[in-house]
Amino acid sequence: MLLQCTEAKRLHPAGIFLAVCVDVIPLGLRVVIYNGKERLAYQVRLVLETQVPGSPPQYLARTFTASLSVSARLNEFLSQWRGRPIVPGDSIDLEKLIGVPATLVVSHQPRRDGNGTFASIDAVSRATKHVIPSGTYDRAAAHAWVEEENSRLSGPRQNPSPVPPLPAQRPMAQVPATVPEIDDVPF
Fold it and tell me: 50: which residues sit within 8 A by CB, 6+ positions away?
C-alpha cells in the first residue's frame, strides 16, 4: 500500500467574512439527538463560500433540520440572514438561497470528541456588499459524496431515506448584480 503525506486542511480563520451561498444539499433522514432523545429528522446543509483575504475561496457549511417552525434553528438562521422574521404561513424555497450574499461571524469551537477544533458559523446577516461566487465549488461532487455517505450510513436498513435528485444548478448569471433590499430578498 502506497501512502502519501499531504498538507493538513487549513482551518477557516475566525472573524467576520463576506460570503455567498453556493449550495443547498438535501441530506435525507438522519439520526439526530433532540432533548436527549434520538429521532429521525430530514436534514439540509447550507454551503457558503467565503472570501478570506490572501487565500483561495474557502467553504463553510451548516446543517439544519429541515423545518421552519418558530423554534427551529433554520428559521432563526434564515431570519437573521434576511433581516426579518419568518412567521407562520411563510414558505421558503431553499434553492433560492444559492447566489445570495451574506455576512458571517465565524469562530473556532472544540470538536465534541475532543480531537481538534472546527470553524463554526455563529451568526449570519445581510451582506454589506455584493459577493460573486468564484465558480470553483463542485456542486455535483458534493451531492455525489452525500449520496455515498447516505448509502454507507444506511447499512443494512431495508428502506434508506431517498434523497431528492440534484436540482438543476441555477446559472450564476441569474445572480442579482446588487444586494437586494430587505423587501427584495429572494427568500
Answer: 12, 17, 18, 19, 57, 58, 59, 60, 104, 106
